[in-house]
Known about the structure:
With 320 residues, the chain is mainly beta. It contains one helix and 24 strands. It has a single domain, classed as AttH-like domain (AttH-like fold, Beta Barrel), CATH 2.40.370. The protein has one helix at residues 121-125, and strands spanning 7-16, 23-32, 39-47, 55-62, 66-69, 78-81, 84-87, 90-97, 100-109, 116-117, 131-148, 151-167, 173-182, 185-196, 198-199, 202-203, 207-214, 217-221, 230-235, 238-245, 248-255, 262-267, 273-290, 293-309. The two termini are 30 Å apart. 42% of the residues are buried.
Amino acid sequence: MTVKTPYYESRFVRANHPEQPLALWLRETLLLPTAGAPVADVWVMVFDPDGAGNRALKVGYPIGSADYCYESGGGAWTARIGDTAIDDVSAQGAIAGGGRSAAWNLSIAPGGQPAVKLLTERGYRAPFPTAKTMVRHPLATFDGQLELDGARLGLQHWTGSVNHNWGKRHTPAYAFGQVCGFDGAPESSLEVVTAHAAVGPVSLPAATLFVLRFGGREFAVRSILGARRTHGRYLPFSWSFGGRVEGVTMEGEITAEPSDVIGLTYFDTGGATKYCYNSALATCRIQLSGDGFRDELVASRRAMFEILLPEPHEGVELLA
């Protein structure tokens, strides 16, 4: 696959401890801006507010140090930057910078669930929206170890996901959420976004899309047309959303304590600086209702919740 400027791409994995409020997030990203040198970055984030504390390390590399492979032409889906790599079944590597270091070696059991596509097939092919996202493995299992600044994590059957984001431009403002197994419903999953897309300099009204898998069914809104039946509103760090699809009404909320959030600085392809605030320890609550049934789902301190802001949020430190 040949990419042209402007372009960004992110391959990432995330996983939660099965019982404790403890999680990790690994990213390998490419940024090809309209002005300035392209760069490849490796990110390591650990959410451990009740233990050693939240930590993050980002190390940048020249774009020539990156090798991204795609499935087209019989190739494997793999991202390599320096001595690190992410693919469908493993993540490994080591980085160092600023007197700090991290190393990890994780095996991934992808699970048998189909990929979660938050857009229609037409949406993936079209130039708009400029940002695309897909969950390759929504209920993966992770084993192995990670060490960051001398603190070691041992992973035994942590649950998480393998993810892929790409496009010509980041969505200017958004809230993103993901659940890899609800309490008491480990085979259920959620992917949801409330996004303020833009056409040139014009910001569009927010649209909420979601894919909820529960009880052997999939409830999904993937198009702007379908988003007329959804709603979403977010602030740091609370988000309410919902919609109606196939005769079923979904109402949800995701919340996070500031102590469970990591702040990061993002750069867009157009040169803008944005501020990402992410918690892998958020709590998600979903209520489903329809003809003759009602269900409630909860994921306690194991949901991912991310918002992108134009200015830093004073309540959470920027760690990378």
